[in-house]
Amino acid sequence: MRARFRAMTATPLLVLENVDKHFGDLHVLHDINLSVQRGEVVVVIGPSGSGKSTLCRAINRLETIDSGTIRIDGEPLPAEGRGLARLRSDIGMVFQAFNLFSHRTVLDNVTLGPTKVLRRPKAEARARGMELLERVRIAEQANKYPAQLSGGQQQRVAIARALAMNPKVIMFDEPTSALDPEMVQEVLDVMTDLAQEGMTMVVVTHEMGFARRAANRVVFMADGQIVEENSPEVFFTTPESDRARDFLSKILTH
Description:
Layout: E1 14-23, E2 26-36, E3 41-45, H1 52-59, E4 67-72, E5 75-76, H2 81-88, E6 91-94, H3 106-116, H4 122-135, H5 151-163, E7 169-173, H6 181-196, E8 201-204, H7 208-214, E9 217-222, E10 225-230, H8 232-237, H9 242-251
Parallel strand pairs: 3-8, 3-9, 6-7, 7-8
Antiparallel strand pairs: 1-2, 1-4, 4-5, 9-10
Helix pairs in contact: 3-4, 3-5, 4-5, 5-6
């Protein structure tokens, strides 16, 4: 059994300090302070428009921040250039949409990053790609094209593609929200396996069952702020804030 809410004693892998972000007059991230330890699974939940996805995208600098700092493994996230590309390779990203290349096979989608960005030999990348497709339970689809796969299968390919870059942390931005209900569990099962294997993960999701089962820590956001964070046991049974209690009373009754 994984430790649920581990003591924050080691040097964090990911650190956000006083991060602010505006879209015009809208303050979407307000003084965000968050640390993620190696091997920790942090699930970020909250109402729509609370800043969860923007937080996820800011960590990978798909969104720039107005102020504050973001550090990966002790290094500040660069603004641009090769340094940013290098650090981005340490941050895997799985989106709501699968973003696979439709004209490439499943295996080619997984091996493109390692061969083009990491300069891995093609044979090595393909062997590793097959291992990862096996890991996400979809190796038999290696030579098919994305359009031949279900949504759940495509999302598992996207996870394998992120893993192929050997990231230090993987960001999941609502990875099941675009899936039909019967496909959600197959993706969550793969994510649960990764959590149990010790992958560092930051997961934005509305899947409360996954948060209870796989998270070390739940971070609740509302109105661009982190309102509270705690272990799943504490958060779901005795939330500290009125805002979290109101949110849970609505989402857990559906």
